[in-house]
Design a protein that fits this description.
Layout (H helix, E strand, L loop, with lengths): L1 H19 L7 H19 L17 H32 L6 H6 L1 H4 L17 E5 L8 E5 L1
Helix pairs in contact: 1-2, 2-3
Length: about 150
């Protein structure tokens, strides 16, 4: 099970996330969603009463019904999580925006949302370092200054 889940989660984070371009800064879906789904399915494959007398055998130990039980559980969980997330986001969106502006993302949320720099850098003479960042919504040729 472990030999499969590592590459599977890596593929979800490195390939699927970049291909579909969804926003998952902590890779929660790629790790917990994909890894958990594999774990639930693998339980239906590898479960054994030799390990847990109170449990059931999986497909590889003669009980195909356990795999179908696990698959039903996976599908039900995906539907429940999707609907619950949709409802929660709809309620939150009544009170506030769900996403910051493109300018705020370029400048950085530490500055625009929290009002501070997470990483304060200084040059060797004690002055602050700044760089110009092109704003996606700013007029052509203008730039934002970001201090370090």
């Amino acid at each position: 099970m472990g030999l499969v889940v590592g590459p599977l989660c890596y593929f979800a984070v490195a390939v699927i996330k970049s291909k579909f371009g969804y926003d998952d800064s902590l890779d929660a879906f790629g790790i917990h969603g994909i890894g958990g789904t594999w774990g639930a399915i693998a339980t239906g494959l590898f479960a054994s009463t030799a390990v847990n007398e109170g449990g059931a055998n999986g497909l590889f130990y003669g009980n195909a019904a356990q795999l179908s039980t696990q698959l039903i559980g996976v599908v039900a969980t995906i539907i429940f999580a999707g609907l619950a997330t949709f409802i929660i986001l709809k309620v939150i969106s009544i009170f506030t925006d769900l996403r910051v502006s493109a300018d705020d993302e370029v400048i950085g949320l530490d500055v625009t949302v929290h009002g501070e720099n997470a990483y304060a850098y200084a040059d060797s003479f004690g002055g602050s370092l700044t760089r110009e960042v092109k704003s996606p919504s700013a007029a052509a040729g203008s730039a934002l200054k970001q201090s370090y």
